[in-house]
Amino acid sequence: MDVFETIILNMNNQIKRINLNHSFIFFLFCNIFSLIIFKFNNFYISPLICLFLILIIGVSHGSLDHQKGKKLFEILDIKKIFIFYLSYILIAILVIIIWTIMPSVSLIIFLTVASFHFGKEDTQFLISENSYFNQLLFFFKGLLIILAPMFFHFDETVAIFKLLLVNNEIFYSSLSFIETNKVLHIGIILSTLSSIYLFLKRFEIKKFPIFLDYFSILILNYYLSPLLAFTVYFCFLHSIRHSLSLIFELNKNIKKRFVLFLNKALPLTIITAMVSLFSLFFLNNYNELNDSIFKVIFIGLASLTFPHILLEYLLEKNEKQRN
Predict the structure, then answer these.
(1) HSE-up of residue 180 (Cα within 13 Å, Cβ side)
(2) Structural domain for 159, as ranges
């Protein structure tokens, strides 16, 4: 094993330890926070707070995409970086346009892509093999984030879908079929089995975050509303985990890593927040405030998720080809 491979191995082991601690802390937080909300019936957290948390903490995990874009263009030997920014923005705008034209299809695609994205990014630091079978397991693992709110709060989740411009009767008939025929149970069982398989394959205790995260998601969605459960997961598990991985790669010194990450992440985070707040102000002229917030959160996240995932895929693919 050469020096470079040793450094990579040590870095991976450190990331696994950090994520194990993070998952354990998050699991404790979920239990305490959910019980507080459950015990105090009048304890209300506004959707506006959820929006601010997502804009401040959640969005920041993708705010280094411009750095990744530069890296991708260096590999592809493309000098004009403005092409990346233009392409990224156009894809985001295109997603919003398509959503307004075909909301039902867009929602289904978004939920499918989000399942894979959540499953992969929350797990791939533990799994070295990048097989097609593992990709399928990532999808089923991430499917829990989509199915759990429907399982515990079906009507409330459907109400959110309606706020996202989805008014297709066939779509809602399919949802009713899913509810009455226990399709949700099957999906959650498949998600559970995928987590068990990923945990047991090449077993090591550092892979325990898989189960901690699994129970955290169930606890959140059992006690909390779909929006609040998603916000807590997205901000404090998914986004922080991804950000920690990015911070770890920036510099050897921990303090310098964090400061460097803030400096690099702040510009795009601020821009995204400003665009989101402007969109909220615009939509509020035609909708109730809370309805507008749901649109900004979920349609906005969809518009950012697609170019983000496409960038991750292209960068990973071209880095492998170069190596």
Answers:
(1) 6
(2) 3-322
262, 281, 230, 299 alpha-carbon torsion, rounded to 10°? -100
CA 94/CA 191 separation, integer angstroms: 31
How many domains is the chain built from? 1
Q: What is the pLDDT of residues 262-296, one digit of tens each?
A: 888 888 889 899 999 999 999 999 999 999 999 99
pLDDT digits (tens, 9 = 90+) for 140-154: 999 999 999 999 999
The b/e string for 27-52 (b: 16+ C-beta within 10 A; e otherwise) is beebeebbeebeeeeeeeeebeebbb
Distance CA 320, CA 306 (A): 21
What is the distance between the alpha carbons of residues 279 and 191, in angstroms, rounded to a whole number? 35
pLDDT band at residue 254 using 50, 70 and 90 as cut-offs: low
Q: pTM here?
A: 0.91
Extract the tokens encoding 270.
């601020």
Q: What is the largest CA-CA distance in the chain?
A: 62
Which own/partner pairs from 136-142 qualify as long-range (CB within 8 Å, at least 24 positions apart)? Answer: 136/194, 137/194, 137/197, 137/198, 138/194, 139/112, 139/115, 140/115, 140/190, 140/191, 140/193, 140/194, 141/191, 141/194, 141/195, 141/198, 141/210, 142/114, 142/115, 142/116, 142/117, 142/118, 142/191
The per-residue pLDDT for range 20-59, each reduced to its tens digit, is: 888 999 999 999 988 888 777 777 889 999 999 999 998 8
Q: Which of 38, 74, 123 is nearest to 319 (CA)?
A: 74
Q: Are 230 and 142 in contact (CB under 8 A)?
A: no
